Amino acid sequence: MTTTPLTADVLATLDALLPELIGFRRDLHAHPELSREEVRTAAAIADRLRQAGLTPVSVCGTAVVADIGAHEASHRIALRADIDALPVQERTGLDWSSTTRGVCHACGHDVHTAIVLGVGLVLATLSDDLAAAGVGVRLIFQHAEERIPGGAHDLLEAGVMEGVDSVFALHCDPSIDVGQVGLREGAITAACDSVTVHVTGKGGHTSRPHLTEDLTFALAKVVTEVPAALSRRIDPRAGFALVWGRVEAGVASNVIPSSGVAAGTLRILDASAWDAIGDLLEQVIEDVVAPYGVRTRIEHVKGVPPVVNRGPAIAALGRAARAVDLTPVPTAQSMGGEDFSWLMQDTPGALARLGTRTPGGPTYDLHQGDLIVDEGAIRAGAALLIRLVLDRGALG
Questions:
Q1: Do 314 and 175 have their domain in common?
Q2: Are strands 166-177 and 259-268 parallel, antiparallel or unpaired?
Q3: Distance CA 218, CA 191 (A)
């Protein structure tokens, strides 16, 4: 292993903690909590940090923040883990499967949490060394990443990023093998908004559509024609996608309803196009439904801008990865959204994709109830972030 003696000793400490961290992750996995409901999760995190001699602070209801090292730091590095689960039914059959019907950690946030907790437990033993080097570490266990707008807004308003000089996060990637870390300079995620279109109009009998405003037909036009029309009004280089996840209207086959709804997400790779999309979206929707006489109410909630990784931060992650025998691999920009981007608006940093696929094993997908994570990713992610911090203080 290409590490200095200090890093080797620190990684030995991590390895001794690994069974506990895996157990902690499995406990969270079995007891998932939705966005802004992470009460048990936050309590478990704070309790373990206190046992390590740290002073965790509860912020924004269910987020937890703890500082390590220098109080007046020459460089303060923040490490963020998201802690919420998804409204998805688990289908893995694992012994530690979710015990909460319809809720599970289908995005790997339980793994993110165990990783940053492990980093905190190890670095707590080096607090004096970090302080002497002028390095501060802020652990951020963030609530409500899966909701638009996400919990990162709350953290900014609470001042959690004040005094932070750089910020980093890892995200599970089940398409990359354990032992690999996906790195990309520049934009690595897309902007993401939620769009809900409520349609109302005069209903009636399906035998007399001419006496109604045929809301179902109009709603179908919204679903099919709005994405198509927008694709001709937005620069194709912007990487635009409007995809509906929920469409509802009516309860009977022979009744034209008087109300309906279509809800989905709008994703754009280009930040400038994202800034300008609002008025155009409403105009296109109104133009599409105009011939049918229905009325619309549009809820367009701005979600997150793209995560844009800074070059020096990616270089630092690459050096840290190689130092702990992880393999940096290139990764593409995805259409997924991440509210970590808000924490990076005024603070340089990076988001890396952490491999969670067992080499030679199946490839799963995020946000699916069958997601299985190779728990070797916990050790890999924690080692990477520990080394990153030690490099900042020239302690590695």
A1: yes
A2: unpaired
A3: 28
